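=== Per-residue structure ===
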Amino acid sequence: MRRVALLALVLAACDCGDDPELGPTDGRVLVDTATERDPVLAEATLLTHEAAADAAIQSIALAPDGNRVAATGWDGTVVVLALDGTSTTAIHSLSAGDLFMEDALAWVGDTIAVGSFSGLTLLSPEGTVTGTLPDRTRAVAGSGDAILRTSRDALERVGSDGTVLGSAPVYDPLALVATDGALYVLSTIADSVDREVIVFDPASLAVRSRWPVNGNTLHGAGDVVGTTNLDTVRLYDGAGTELRTLQTEGVPSDLVALDFAGDWVVGSGFDEGVALFDVASGSRLAQAGGATGRGVILDGDRRVLAGGAAGVLVYAIER
């Protein structure tokens, strides 16, 4: 009888939440064993912009003030959207025939850097063009007050007026990650189909090291970088030592974009939403549907932003 009474007390005090096997009952999806400390991805809020074309987001970038997000899509338009949903402003349109490059967007200080097939365009948040550079710009990032971009065959440090402040040759650069201590470029090894990560000094752009990698994308923050290749996501330290793979079993789509913040990493798939993981263990903490995988941002422990077919999706992180 004492055991039965104790069990009854435990069950009465337990707020166990939804059963992960049964799916959401209140618009949320939990994954793995729920506890009161587990993060939860709330049902997404959609930020939209009125335009003749569908959004089809290609890239997103969070403003330094954390209150706005820039997005590329809408058949060649750069839009700034307030995260509280109060305003959207189209600030730039590509020339006919030009195309945005995926994940080639950064908001650095008062400058929005946009990469396209024809070049790099630097904009104020109000839409004034402050500088341009020719040549396909596949990736952009911010390092302090400077803007970094990869052209067809180089890594370049660029001022807000478009002046090239420094450069280093890179064969077929595919992706770029800027952290406080280093720059990482994913590139193709010359005369090969294999790939490598080249680590640059952020000030001098001198090569520090390089290591082979099996991946199609590169993302990172701090001293951890990640690569994606089909259904496998690998995490590495800054020296190229593989730390672990993310536990992606049960994620319904291959992850093609990542972002890191603190102890977490978020990934998004082609059309099946986002998943939140623990960096230290690689375990999956939560997931939710709706994103397209074209741009994802983990804004600390507050929210996840992701590109969608109709606009930018904002998932609050709850405990």
About this structure: Residues 27-318 form a domain with the Methylamine Dehydrogenase; Chain H fold (CATH 2.130.10.10).
